[in-house]
Give the backbone structure.
Amino acid sequence: MQIFKKPNFNFMKYKFIALTISGFIIIIGIINITSVKGINYGIDFAGGTLLQIRFKNSIPIAELRASMRNANLGNSKIQEVEKGKKEFIIRTMLPEKEADQELEAHVIMGNKVVEVLKSSEDKIATQQGLVDLNNIDKDELARILESFSPDNAKELAEKIIGLRESTDLKGIIENFDQITDENTDSETIKFLKEKTFLGSLSIKRRETVGPQVGHDLRTKAAQATIWALIGMLLYIGIRFKFAYGVSAILTLSHDVLITLGIFSLTNRELNLPVIAAILTIVGYSLNDTIVIFDRVRDNLKILRKNHFEEILNVSINQTLSRTIITSLTTFLTVTSLFLFGGEVINDFAFTMIIGVIVGTYSSIYQSCSILYFWKIIFKPKKGLGK
């Protein structure tokens, strides 16, 4: 499939403009990271508690934020999981001056969030000694059911919790009729009504990361990125020439720096899935760059009388259709994830969108430009043509 029949664009003509634009964006990003907003580290790296909560009734996100502010939890971040205003992800962290406290402090903070969001009816029912059926685990429910049905307590508990977590109920029981079937007759329901109540919210997921673990994860993420770049430098240096390896690594560093800069400017959260996306971008961009370099190496033998800049232009044009087709296919996929994938993977998809755009741009404009300037500066005798 050929998008362009015989493309003959003079990409190298704009090498100075491309490098200037890239340098400007990178500098703005670095200034923003070091002196203005910094990087908005997620719970994975900063430590804290993540709660995915589903409410029985719809609740506006503005009302949730107001409740959090009134309880001195205004630094918590709230994301809506679905449009029905019933399910949210809440990330809460201790203030910066207290962020290095032990894991228990973060757990207490998460518990405080849950208490703030509970309804007054929930609190009254708890004071009366009732147990919240929407937040109880199957072992605790089995212990309660033992006084009613000792032989079938465990089986009943598994059945009820399974119904609660089913696709239909989505983690919360809104009324006792929803768990009525052949295994939970009217007597069972009557017993449950005496011992339990249906809370206004259900905690579907809870993740707590201590400050030390967050620091270790941050270090490991940086090391993973650096080692990936070093490994690629060695591979390309052996497979092609050292100049190609340096050009590829500088191109990939360009992609990573621009992506991090955009993340800082948009104040998006940097977490482990985003690091995974960045490493994916590195691999994606490298693959595209190697295709062009492979064509450059072939053309150095075929077009030996041409100047090096002309060979670079020919190589980019010869691989242009392949680059556009690959990038467009990937772009459409990650855009679909971004638009329809929900909040949970929104940051990952956003990173991939930026990476595909920047990676395609850098493969065309940066990799060969850096290779060109390497030849001008270091004047290698072999391997880079005239």
Q: What stands out?
A: The first strand starts at residue 40 and ends at 41. The mean pLDDT is 84.
